[in-house]
Amino acid sequence: MFTCKNCGGNVKFDIKSGQLACEYCHSFFDPYDYDDKTSDAEVQEGFEATIFTCPQCGGEIISTDDTAAGFCSFCGASTVLYSRIQKEQKPAYIIPFQKTKEDCKQAYSSYMQKAFFVPNELKAPEFIDGFRGIYMPYWTYKVVQKAPISLPAKNTYHSGDYVISDYYRAEGDLDAYYEGISFDSSSSFDSSISEALSPYDIKDIKRFTPAFLSGFYADRADLPSNVYESDAIEAACKNTLKKVKGVPAFIGVALDCEPIVFSPVSTIEKAERSMFPVWFLSYRNKDRVAYATVNGQTGKVYADLPVSIGKFLIGSLIAAIPVYMLLCTLTVLTPGITLTIVGLLAIIANICYSHELTMIITKESGSEDKGLFAKEHPEELSAFDTQRHLNASRKAANKITVKITEKITVEKVIKFVLNCIAVIYIIISTLSAIMYIRGIAGFSNADGSFILFTLLTIVAFVFSIISFKKFIQLHVLKGSIGLIFGMLSMLAGNAVLFMQPILDAWYYGVSFIIILSVLNTLINVIHAFNILTTRKLPQFDTHKGGDDRA
After folding, report:
1. Which residues pair with 84 in a beta bridge?
2. Cis link prior to 199 (omega < 30° from 0)?
3. How many C-beta neighbours within 10 Å does residue 448 have?
4. pLDDT in the model for residue 422
5. Residue 219 Cα to chain centre, angstroms
6. Any idea what DSSP says for residue 263?
7. Separation CA 71–CA 79 (nearest Å)
């Protein structure tokens, strides 16, 4: 808690002025007036702060104020957070907030105007008012590149009917350095969010003093600097290659090399702790949480946008009406063709569902978030140094995350049912194909709908099996019954096309049943999409939860 030097009232950082402002006498003070330690050694000393701990997830945030917090930004819980006083290590630098809360709310509202299918509560003014200013911890690296280099190059040109390539060695002395290459140093801060909010302008960076935190919160750093050293070097190498290609002497000459060639001459000279500003908002729905974030310096917005099922279905219905009318205008839809088109829609829905499930498995494993992966599997950190290693680490992460140690009884039952459906389908398809070829009992499909629908059913069955295997990996059975319903509806369509009933009602009745299965699959796709756009409720095992005062 910082007090006014004139009246003794509370002072907080004022974004518009960039100074500390007194809430009572309205005096302004330079933040460094409350910090007279300027030497490099003293900068690294700790500062006293209040640590707020969420009793539900264990997440911890730092504040220089001791006022009780009533909302957890990590899990979205509305609860009184436990607090304790603790000595925290000082970061070296900080970028103060430059966008006010009103700026943040305006930027977010403009961003959400294009999101038509999000739940209404994400656009509610009382929800938007919940933005909180949080300083997120970062590592800032200085990369130095200094060495003689020799790069392969070639110049290609045409001479008559020939293409001639001349090969060279581009040699020179490389002398470059990069400061301010930054990566977030909190495993709780999703890397996809930090990447989306970047870049920060390092020109506005200042020497850290705790006074900048007055009126704001800060997340705690829990990742060592070595986690992102390879990424910092890679970023420097990419930029160096870009600049080398822009050298006038190399214009018209293609450098036949990749950024990795600069890695051997790249070194991390120093890595320093920093804090960057983020406006942060949490939206909790049962066991999932979505985040909305705004860059506190540039105003750049990133938000998880779940979809409202009701809005999506209404929008899809409105879009389907003109499409159906167009099809009726352009062609004559026989009952068989109508049934085939409906089957095609089922295939598309199954493919979308399978794709969403694949992405869920990857995301839930945490293998795409290097910070989280490094926290949980530090021994696998080296696997992220190259793309080849990155792919290997993802496979390793999937094995760790989705390893199945025991099959439950319900899964065995569902697998048995699916296998029975497969056997039945193979028998029916074989008999139908034989009867079609031989023309037994006057069997004939002039429009070819039976063969087309049979092929569609095979594809649907394949993707249903793939989707079910992914359900097992996720240890989730909800939605797997819909796969069985979809397969049975497709088999019913095959049976109708095979029997060729006189009444069209049979065709349209089965088509309606398949549409119901497609609708169920689309709802499951939306559920899967919402899982991708939201996150599991965090449980910070590495953070000490509970009331430390007890």
Report:
1. 51
2. yes
3. 11
4. 57
5. 20
6. G
7. 6
Q: Count Cα neighbours of 400 within 13 Å in the Cβ-side half-sphere.
A: 15
13 DSSP assignment: E
Residue for token pair 């992405």: 359
Q: At residue 353, what is the residue type?
A: Y
Nearby residues of 160 by Cβ (< 8 Å), 6 or more positions away = none
| Residue of 374, 336, 385, 369 whose CA lies nearest to 231 | 385
- CA terminus-to-terminus distance, the chain: 24
Distances (CA, A) of 92 to 195, 276, 525: 22, 12, 46
Residue 411 token pair: 């899964």
- Written as six digits, the tokens of 542 are 């590495």
Please give the structure tokens belonging to residue 446: 């002039």
DSSP 8-state class, residue 375: H
How far are the Cα atoms of 178, 260, 362, 382, 397 from residue 387, in angstroms, in the given order? 23, 11, 16, 11, 15
C-alpha 176, offset from chain centre: 33
Within its chain, how far is the Cα of 159 from the centroid?
50
Question: Which letter does DSSP use for residue 224 in this model?
Answer: -
Report pTM.
0.73
In whole angstroms, give the CA distance from residue 516 to residue 457: 16
In this predicted model, what pLDDT tens digit does every residue of 37-71 receive, in sequence order? 544 444 446 777 778 887 777 777 887 766 656 66
